[in-house]
Design goal:
Catalyzes cyclization of the linear tetrapyrrole, hydroxymethylbilane, to the macrocyclic uroporphyrinogen III. It is an enzyme of class 4 (lyase). Its EC number is 4.2.1.75. The protein is an alpha/beta fold and 247 residues long. It is 37% helix and 23% strand. The protein folds into two domains: 122 residues, 3-Layer(aba) Sandwich (Rossmann fold), CATH 3.40.50.10090; 116 residues, 3-Layer(aba) Sandwich (Rossmann fold), CATH 3.40.50.10090. It contains ten helices and eleven strands. A six-stranded mixed sheet has the order 3-8-7-4-5-6, with helices on both faces. It has a five-stranded parallel sheet with strand order 2-1-9-10-11. Strand 10, helix 9 and strand 11 form a beta-alpha-beta unit. The longest helix is centred in the middle third of the chain and has 12 residues.
Length: 247
Amino acid sequence: MQETILYTRESPLSQNLCQAFEKKQLKVLSIPLIKTVALSFTVPQQTYDWLLFTSSNAVNYFFPSKMTDVKAAVIGEKTKIAAQQAGYEIGFQSYEGDGDSFVNEWLAFTQEHKTPSGRPLQVLFPRSKIASSKIISKLANAGIEVTDLSVYDTVFPPEQEGVLLQAINTCSFTYAVFASPSAWHHFYHVFEKSNFRTNQKYFFSKIKILSIGPVTSRAILEKGCKVTLESRVYTMDALIEKFLEER
């Protein structure tokens, strides 16, 4: 019997990964559980030394704000490419996918956290409305002045609720992949309306959960569910490739 993987991300799978699934005789059930929407914002008029981008979405929703003369610090290759395409100079890139590692590496890179004149570094941080404030707190504790700017939000696409509910009720997938705590929370919210809501242990014994990284895994574990596979490199491509290698 052909197994099915529930893919919950907004962006589609690459052609290479689709072909890899076909070779493994895996069917993909795509039900996006995240939708990004733009927020209106105004950039405070002041001098900034750095822009911090932790996702390509942050770059895309912040652009075309005209600040290409400010150096950008980014997480990962996709964010770097998006920032370069928007015309930003990459002054620092972290290859770790979590915010804590990113901040630690960047703080070490900037060393004194001040300008040559002795002024504290001024950082503009465009981000998701629901993103964790840990990065801001950590930077502030290091003496850096951070301007927090929400440029987009992530919401649950309401048109997907019925589709997902049917998939859960009919146990239509063997694997489920989650790339953010938000995607997991949206999935679990619908699960609580399903026929299995009073028998969680049975339902989750029938599926295997794949997580993009430790932050998402923590959200899953908090609901008493097991993570079968967690990616060491926090990208969707790396997670899927690892899954296909180990399957």
